[in-house]
Task: structure prediction
Amino acid sequence: MKKFYSLALALSPLLGFAQAGAPASPYYNGFNWTVTGSSLKSALSTKITNTHTKTLSYDDIWDVDKIIDLDPNDASNANVLLLYGFSNNMCPASTSDNNDHRRRNKNSNGGGNTCQWNREHTFAKSLGTPDLGTSGPGADAHHLRPADVTRNGNRGNLKFAAGSGNSGSVAGGWYPGDEWKGDVARMIMYMYLRYPTRCLPKNVATGSTVSSDSNMISLLLQWNAEDPVSEYEDRRNTYLGNASNTYGQGNRNPFIDNPYLATVIWGGPVAENRWPGMLAADSFDLLANVMVYPNPSNDQKINIYSEKELDEIELININGQMIQQIKKPVHNQEVYTLENLPQGFYLIRISSENMSTTKKVIIN
Result:
């Protein structure tokens, strides 16, 4: 049955999408990309859990870090990158600030406080429910990173908190640094989906939670959007995702593959979309002949046309806040109207028969 719905919207400015690409094949072959929100979260959780076929030991992490955390700008493959680090000096040439280093000889691992690195649990062990220990989630290489011994100790089990510049203690917690905040956010999101009851983001980061998920912290979505994926993240994700590799777990971090997946699940600031042909908000074609028009609108009204009966219409701003949710919309003369709405950009999510499509709309 063909239905017409009329809506007037106004949302916050929407960021653009960037970077061409496609889902890692064959890892995502057959995955249902038609779901959004909590359904997508659940589906990805199942995917990364079922494909986690190789369990690493905590001792294995020493060796795996020497492979997956190599500095991609070092042709000699002699140095690993250190999470939270920011100085390019190298030990022993300058030891006075050795805890600030961002790279170090890969064989300088151990527990010494001078010029050595150890294994940082990005999701601090003691903040798990219960403690993550050094097996299972406590030995998952997706969140274990080399870090300077002293700097690792300075972070301890402090929760991640807002800040700027280099890493360090801030009021209320630990700021990972401008270079690393996106890495941290994507690792925490992975841990939440892989260990959904043990690794709650609200236990490891500070700030407000999103309206759709009382466990997800808005700050992590902000960091995910502000700090795009690096070549370094891609390389370690590809290695760990291949179970044929000596230390390959078999599963991937989906938020490294495409940070925009976090936006599709939780909303918030629009992150980098690495699959614009698939997941761009205006490119979903999940409901037959869905049209949103006029777009942009000059009269504060947006019309929705669909051949299917709609189950739900959601208006969402760029901060992930639900502006309005209309369940089982009643089609009084097949028209729905919201009046006197200001200018802006919005996401409108339309659902029908367990399918959904998200459209970007502009009100001039």
Notes: Confidence is low (pLDDT under 50) at residues 1-5, 8-20, 281-288. The two ends are 31 Å apart (CA to CA). The first strand starts at residue 3 and ends at 7.
